[in-house]
Specification:
single chain; Dihydrofolate Reductase, subunit A; 6 helices; globular
Length: about 230
Amino acid sequence: MKKNRPVTTLFMLMSLDGKISTGDNDSLDIDKDFPKIKGVKEGRSQYYELEKTTDLYSLNTGRVMEKIGVNKRKNSNKSPASFIIIDNKPHLTKHGVIFMAGWGKKIYLVTTNRKHPAFGLKNVKNMEIIYSKKLDLKSLLVKLKKKYGVKRITIQSGGTLNSTFLRDGLIDHISVVVAPCLIGGKNTSTLIDGESLHSIKELNKIKALKLRKCKVLNKSYLHLKYDVI
């Protein structure tokens, strides 16, 4: 059936036990911490090489962008990708928004917050603000395709938002790079977080996968690709 939304792929780096962070607070982060761990740091660059081959529309959150330091960055290599950033709190400052608009081909700032700093910016090239009173991911994806011509999106958000995408049937493909480590911690974010299932009646919310590719990378890393059934 022809879809009225973009094709989506969840692309993430995770530990063998599914963790996408090294701990339960924003001071701990895989990007910053893996380079410090012997046996893990040696192969991590393979993930970033694969990242360069993903879709030219990347969906993420303001929280993740804040964690990687865009609010303080001054220079970065120009990216050919356009960024779709969901940011309600907000996590991005004016500087962060301006930086991202210059970093990528275009930034689509998605927010439910009328006081977001992006509204106070004028004459910022390559920025589109998508405002709604309530975040509806399905409606957002439909709008991105119909109004902006977005056909394919790579999702790289946090575990909670990943869960919403998955539960709503909005993820088509999974592409994960598995690092050779175990992190643990019940409060440490995983690939899919969100509300737990509470009864047998909810088992239909579990998404089965069909394996498309399993590649052994260097330094004990794996690249797994699945279709969501």
